[in-house]
Design brief:
By secondary structure, the protein is an alpha/beta fold. The protein is built from 19 helices and ten strands. The strands form two sheets. An eight-stranded parallel β-barrel has the order 1-2-3-6-7-8-9-10. The N and C termini lie far apart (122 Å).
């Protein structure tokens, strides 16, 4: 009886054309004469039916509305140019895993917001995600273009200059406007690839013993106009233009620098801290002026900046109220120059006593505090420069930034820490494009030029070959300085002892021929 009932049920199913185990018609291609499916509905192969069953449910409509509202709020902030708020809102939205249309829109807008605030790597990462987000992504092609552009720019600012042959000259040594074109043509014919314009330490408000020429710019606007003209004409001949700046001197370009911007220096005769003619790089308001000044220079399309150290922060410098306060906040102890710099104080001798001491009381407390102070001053100086570079690259991504190092910073780091507030090895860990090694020379000495060049050769060669190159990834990240011989660069490979010294350096290293020396 049971078998008979099963057979009847099977016949009924077949007769009614309603498969008992099937809930929808097969999804094969329509036969001739049949009505095709609506164009908006794509047929789904049978092997994907199981996937549709296992896929997660769609985001509920109320959640979709919340995502749309969050996106609109972030878009409004973007249009108001409130980019940090837009970035914050879009980041929170993407953390909620919105559906694809809103996700694509959010990532595209987030990348643009990152570009506006100079977060180039973050923008590149968002573009990278959009390039692989699938064929339904309408931003894919545009994201690929933006990704390629940002990748190229990021590689450009981290890549050091190639085989730099630079002439270093002051503003006063620049050819007059009428003869500039002819002058740089001769330089290019001589193999020069780069102009390094040294702003010096005069600016608008500095009063030196030497009279200023009437041709030299006296104000920042004049300087910008001059640089703009020289940069445009140099670029037409494919010459790069770098500007050399000393952060302790830039305040002289301000029309009315504030008295509290001045650095403090300890006078060993009066045993008092007095105002210096140089400026305090630790002062927050002065740092803001530095940021504005460097931005103005970069707006004139200069190819790079070199942070020079012609006027270093010596052992008695950096004693400003701001510097001493920041040191005390960092270490919990105060630095008292009167107690430290007693008559006959020798920091190197104090270091030897400190290193030989086996007991905490074996050396004066002031000696220990002094070395904390010396190390803090050098590292804090690097931090200030690094922060300025970070702000600058948010606006001008491809500007190269080099740092001058004294050879003693490589061969005698303790002396460099005391005399120049330099920590060369720490500097190599900071985001500088290259390093400029310039031995200190006495331009008023009676020695002739050839002997001075030989002295420079010994100092620079040892410092660069044995200390700096082993810790850098490319010899192009090193520039060395040489006095220009009779106003022209020394050609490597030519006859004569003065030229042969350049052959000791590896290929690709940059050479700066200093027109200021012995001029």
């Amino acid at each position: 009886m049971t078998t008979w009932l099963k057979m009847c049920s099977l016949l009924v199913c077949l007769g009614l054309m309603a498969g008992c185990g099937r809930t929808r018609p097969p999804q094969g291609p329509p036969v001739s004469g049949a009505i095709p499916p609506p164009p908006a509905v794509e047929s789904m192969p049978e092997d994907r039916e199981e996937e549709s069953v296992l896929s997660p449910p769609e985001v509920p409509p109320d959640i979709q509305r919340i995502h749309a509202q969050l996106f609109q709020q972030s878009k409004d902030r973007f249009e108001e140019k409130a980019y940090p708020q837009a970035i914050s809102g879009l980041t929170r939205l993407l953390a909620l895993l919105p559906e694809e249309p809103i996700e694509f829109q959010s990532r595209w807008l987030l990348a643009q917001a990152y570009r506006q605030v100079g977060e180039w790597e973050a923008a590149r990462d968002q573009y990278r995600i959009l390039t692989v987000a699938g064929s339904a992504n309408p931003y894919q092609a545009g994201a690929q273009l933006q990704f390629n552009e940002l990748q190229r720019l990021l590689e450009q600012f981290t890549m050091p200059p190639l085989d730099t042959q630079a002439i270093r000259l002051t503003l006063e040594q620049l050819p007059a406007s009428g003869g500039f074109d002819e002058g740089i043509k001769k330089m290019k014919a001589d193999g020069i690839t780069t102009l390094l314009i040294d702003l010096g330490c005069e600016g608008a408000g500095f009063h030196s013993d030497q009279p200023r020429t009437t041709r030299a710019p006296r104000h920042l606007l004049d300087l910008q106009t001059l640089l703009r003209s020289y940069v445009e004409r140099s670029h037409q001949l494919h010459l790069l233009v770098y500007v050399g700046v000393n952060l302790r001197c830039i305040g002289n370009w301000h029309d009315s620098p504030l008295p509290e911007w001045r650095d403090g220096t300890y006078n060993t005769t009066t045993r008092q801290v007095q105002n210096s003619r140089f400026f305090d790089i630790f002062h927050p308001e002065y740092q803001r002026f530095l940021d504005q000044f460097l931005t103005h220079l970069s707006e004139e399309s200069v190819d790079g900046l070199v942070f020079l150290d012609d006027y270093p922060m010596g052992v008695y410098d950096g004693m400003s109220r701001e510097g001493l306060t920041r040191f005390q906040n960092a270490f919990g102890v105060s630095f008292d120059p009167v107690r430290t710099f007693q008559p006959g104080f020798d920091p190197l001798r104090a270091l030897k006593l400190l290193s030989r001491s086996t007991q905490p009381s074996g050396a004066p407390v002031e000696d220990s505090v002094f070395w904390r102070w010396a190390g803090w001053k050098a590292r804090e100086r690097l931090t200030v420069v690094e922060q300025l570079i970070g702000q600058l690259r948010k606006r001008h991504l491809t500007v190269q930034c080099g740092l001058e190092l004294h050879p003693h910073g490589l061969t005698d780091p303790v002396r460099a820490l005391v005399d120049y507030a330099q920590d060369a090895m720490e500097a190599t860990r900071r985001p500088f494009s290259f390093f400029f090694v310039r031995p200190e020379i006495d331009r008023h000495s009676s020695s002739d030029q050839l002997s001075a060049i030989e002295k420079l050769r010994r100092i620079s060669t040892k410092a660069v070959l044995t200390r700096l190159l082993p810790v850098l990834d490319d010899p192009r990240r090193v520039w060395v300085s040489m006095p220009a011989e009779r106003g022209k660069r020394i050609l490597p490979g030519t006859a004569g002892g003065s030229a042969s010294l350049l052959n000791e350096f590896p290929s690709g290293i940059g050479v700066v021929h200093d027109l200021r020396a012995f001029s």
